[in-house]
Amino acid sequence: YAEVQYFFRLRKMLEDGGTDDVDMTLAMVSVFTPPDPAILRESYGVLKACRYQGETSREVIDAKGIASVVAMVPLPPRR
Questions:
Q1: Which of 13, 14, 43, 75 is the Cys-Cys partner for 47 at CB 3.0 to 4.6 Å?
Q2: In terms of Cα–Cα distance, which of 54, 57, 50 is closest to 74?
Q3: How far apart are CA 78 and CA 75, in angstroms?
């Protein structure tokens, strides 16, 4: 899971230097940690609790690779 920070376009030139450049739409994302295995197990796979990593986990991805949109709702601290 990841949070999109912003989208941008990039023109990629072909290796042969041809004029048929490829325009790509990319996204800068901040990746969440994998789901907490204990919470996932205790909730029988219903609740996937991930930690937000902010600027420490940025990646650039192809925007076409975004499969769905979900909400990451903050959970109260565990006791």
A1: 43
A2: 50
A3: 8
Question: Tokens at residue 29, please?
Answer: 């994302």
| DSSP H stretches of helix in the chain | 37-42
Give CA–CA dist 3/30, Å, rounded. Answer: 5
Integer Cα distance of 68 and 1 in angstroms: 10
Residue with tokens 């990841």: 2
H-helix or E-strand spanning residue 24: strand 22-31
Place of tokens 């325009």: 23
Residue-wise pLDDT for 15-50, tens only, equals 776 667 788 999 999 999 999 999 999 999 999 999
